[in-house]
Design brief:
The chain is mainly α. The chain is built from 18 helices and no strands. Helix 3 packs antiparallel against helix 16 and helix 5 runs antiparallel to helix 6.
Length: 471
């Protein structure tokens, strides 16, 4: 190592201030906006306005999550191969540029798919467009992975034990701000589109949104991270293999990752909890349109009510619930409250009262905030700082896999419910009953997670792997 690098490590690094935490949160805010655009607006248009089967819609969009195994690779790459002297920032910027482009391309594929259906029906050409749309969403998912995984590892790098929970609380709250802001802006931009609007008006409005919003999100990614890693990152001072690419290969990182059975338990819990939480994501806007008679603008605002509730839950949990109940019990409480929220959503469907649904979505958001805070707090305790990118990639993989399965399962369950029950209300009730069962299973898994056992086994594995490389 050269003397300048050594000096930079020996010099004490500044502590991350609250303004910088909020600046970092701009990146997550952008991801919240992108999530709304794909799983909210585009999903709703394909199912409701274009009448494409929900299973096909869910499966194509879910391709962005099925490529999630790449998250571990991107995390390990950012651990070992810096870009422009930084381990995380270059990956964040390149990934953000690519997912902004891919989202616009996906919309163009959707219009071509619809044109093919109208012209030739469900023939070879139409299925070719479905395949191409799936491929574009896979590229979108790879870009998201390349950007978000190194970003989350950056949060570990720039924080210390005494301020990491505060940083995560701020950044994840900004994710929900992005969903709320995106829902409000999109709702305003789409207000002119009524449920019976001509397709040409729908296309022009959606195209404008998918050009302006992703470009703005890319700008947020740059503003959020520029200069932060260089100023605050502790990665090189924490890891004796930070400058040794041969000492942190993917295989050796996976040895550390799989050293403790607790990793597998928590991985499974994350999958079940996340799948149950987001199973509604692919059917919520169609639910509002079909059962409650909402326009695109009105059904998109459901995300805003859910996001507001989640923000309230995230804020209150960190200060009031976790200090009193602890991380484990907070996560369990959140699971039970989410299950209760889905029961309320089912009951609301029989009233067909849009205002009541808005209120229930706020309560669902509160429950989501509680379970998210508890799960993220546990995730921090179950991450080894020496290989932060790899561990973050693994937790991201669990969540992405769960959201992918949830998207497909939600669409497939809706189609199955239509066949079995024939009634839209009963079909959607069938979908919303599944997360209730899932959250009960998640609680059973959570009861078996032991943070102390994980930390002990992870430290032993890191010592073994690093010693083997140094010998």
């Amino acid at each position: 190592m050269d003397t300048s690098a050594s000096a930079s490590i020996d010099r004490p690094l500044p502590k991350l201030g609250v303004p910088t935490m909020f600046r970092l949160g701009l990146f997550q805010m952008g991801l919240g906006i992108m999530s709304l655009l794909t799983l909210g607006v585009l999903n709703r248009v394909m199912i409701k306005e274009l009448a494409i089967p929900a299973t096909i819609v869910a499966a194509t969009i879910a391709m962005n999550q099925f490529v999630a195994p790449a998250r571990i690779w991107f995390g390990q790459m950012s651990d070992s191969k810096p870009i422009g002297g930084n381990h995380r920032t270059g990956y964040v910027w390149i990934g953000a540029a690519l997912f902004a482009i891919a989202s616009f391309l996906a919309v163009q594929c959707v219009w071509q798919l619809n044109a093919s259906i109208e012209a030739t029906g469900w023939g070879f050409v139409t299925y070719a467009w479905v395949a191409l749309l799936s491929f574009v969403f896979a590229l979108y998912g790879l870009a998201i992975s390349a950007s978000s995984t190194p970003f989350t590892a950056l949060l570990v790098d720039v924080s210390d034990e005494d301020n990491r929970s505060k940083l995560v609380g701020v950044v994840w709250s900004m994710l929900m701000v992005g969903i709320v802001v995106g829902a409000i802006i999109t709702s305003v931009l789409l207000k002119q589109i009524e449920s019976d609007a001509p397709l040409e008006l729908v296309q022009s409005s959606i195209n404008r949104i998918f050009w302006v919003m992703p470009a703005a999100v890319f700008g947020l990614a740059i503003a959020a991270t520029v200069g932060v890693e260089k100023t605050y990152s502790r990665y090189r001072s924490r890891s004796i293999i930070a400058d040794r690419e041969d000492g942190i290969t993917l295989g050796r990182s996976l040895k550390i990752l799989t050293a403790s059975r607790q990793t597998g338990l928590f991985f499974t819990f994350l999958i079940m909890m996340t799948m149950s939480l987001f199973l509604q994501e692919s059917v919520l806007e169609p639910f509002g349109g079909e059962v409650f008679g909402m326009t695109i603008s009105e059904s998109t605002r459901l995300n805003a009510f859910w996001g507001i509730g989640t923000l309230m839950g995230l804020s209150a949990t960190g200060f009031l619930i976790v200090p009193r109940l602890g991380k484990h019990n907070t996560a369990k409480l959140g699971c039970f409250l989410v299950a209760a929220s889905f029961a309320l959503i089912i009951l609301t469907g029989f009233t067909a009262n849009p205002k009541l649904l808005n209120l229930v979505m706020i309560l669902f958001g509160l429950a989501s905030g509680i379970v998210t805070t508890g799960a993220i707090s546990l995730m921090l305790d179950l991450t080894a700082a020496e290989t932060a990118g790899t561990f973050v990639g693994a937790w991201g993989l669990a969540q992405a896999m769960a959201r992918a399965v949830a998207a497909v399962l939600g669409g497939a369950a809706l189609d199955l419910g239509r066949v079995i029950f024939g009634s839209p209300v009963l079909a959607y009730s069938f979908v919303f009953a599944l997360p209730i069962v899932g959250m009960i299973i998640a609680v059973r898994l959570l009861d078996r997670v032991d943070v102390q056992e994980f930390q002990l086994k992870a430290k032993e594995a890191i010592a073994r792997v690093l010693q083997a490389e140094l010998d």
